[in-house]
Amino acid sequence: MLTDQFNRLHTYLRVSLTDKCNLRCTYCNPIDLPKGYFSQTNKMSVDEIDAIIGVFVQQGIKKIRLTGGEPLVRKDAKEIMMRLSKYPVELAITTNGVFVHEFIETFKQAGIRSVNVSLDSLNPKRNLIITGRDEYDTVRRNIDLLLENNFHVKINTVIMADVNAPEIPDFIALTRDHPVHVRFIEFMPFSGNHWNKGKLFTLDEMLSLIGSSYDYIPLHNDPHDTALKYKVPGFMGTFAIISTMSRPFCGGCNRLRLTTDGKMKNCLFSKTEADILSALRNGDDILPLIKECVWNKAEALGGQFTSVDKNLDSTTIINRSMINIGG
């Protein structure tokens, strides 16, 4: 069992298949990345992913989510999904939705029933500005395709005060006639994403805006949930808010992360990483390294800050960019 010094049991592993992405979202993967930025990544092979995950599953991991970058740009993504389908876990994936139509049969064969799709604007022109690529229509068609095939679909929307916050009621309108689950994510600071407090639109601000258009009710939240869930009565879908910055949920966190280059992070904001892949390639037992990494997990937010109530200077946060970490 993977337990830290605060008695948190970890049963959820997020695995980044690649740090490459076909989009250039401003909050994640800035368009001005230097030439050759991705080419040096020493990524895990299919066999190495399988071997490492096998150890995690033996230690009680019950859910695995495949992330990126964009996981579906990896050429052997289908093989990875099929290899991991043998494990007795819930297998899920987060994608930007552009290539879903090419993989939907693989999702079914691998037992993937839950798909998170990133969509940050319902305005095609604004979506282009945020993502750097004109793929809005494709993503919307693929969301519909997933719903038609009875997948559990969450729409992930990173909310920025000066960009897409006014669209929050429009996203909730999607849940009226469709069983989609929209998740609004507070803008978080990472290397290179130009975070500042002025761009942050908090949980309380979101609920205030939503309340001006809709009556809503809170839903039950499990101890390990990272989102506060709500529903407009009579609507088919739900909405939720991931309040990492204004109201952290670290006390019940059960998540670990494995980057595409085989580094283990015990928190999205952890300063340090355990080099699991190098140990595996050296023929070492990786379990002690995994357990040590879990045990050393900070009480909250990687031990780097507490909340945005204080004057947070994002330049002092030691971390890789979101695309390196794995979504």
Radius of gyration, taken over Cα atoms and rounded to an integer in Å: 19 Å
Helical run tally: 10
Structural class: alpha/beta
- The total count of strands amounts to 12
Taken in chain order, the helices and strands follow as EHEHEHEHHEHEHEEEEEEHHH
**Silhouette:** globular
The parts where pLDDT drops under 50 for at least 5 residues are: none
What is the typical, i.e. mean, pLDDT?
90
- What is the CATH topology classification name? TIM Barrel
CATH architecture: Alpha-Beta Barrel
Q: Share of helix among residues? A: 25-40%
For the sheet with most strands, the description reads: 12 strands, mixed
Largest sheet: spatial strand order: 7-8-9-6-5-4-3-2-1-10-11-12
| The CATH class | Alpha Beta
Description:
This protein has 327 residues and is of the alpha/beta class. It has one domain: Aldolase class I (TIM Barrel), CATH 3.20.20. Helix content is 28%, strand content 17%. It has 10 helices and 12 strands. It has helices at 46-58, 77-84, 100-110, 124-131, 136-148, 168-177, 203-211, 276-281, 287-295, 322-325; strands at residues 12-16, 63-67, 90-95, 114-118, 152-159, 180-186, 217-218, 228-231, 238-242, 255-258, 263-265, 274-275. It has a 12-stranded mixed β-sheet with strand order 7-8-9-6-5-4-3-2-1-10-11-12. Helix 3 links the parallel strand 3 and strand 4. Helix 1 packs parallel to helix 2 (77-84) and helix 2 (77-84) runs parallel beside helix 3 (100-110). The radius of gyration is 19 Å and the shape is globular. The mean pLDDT is 90.
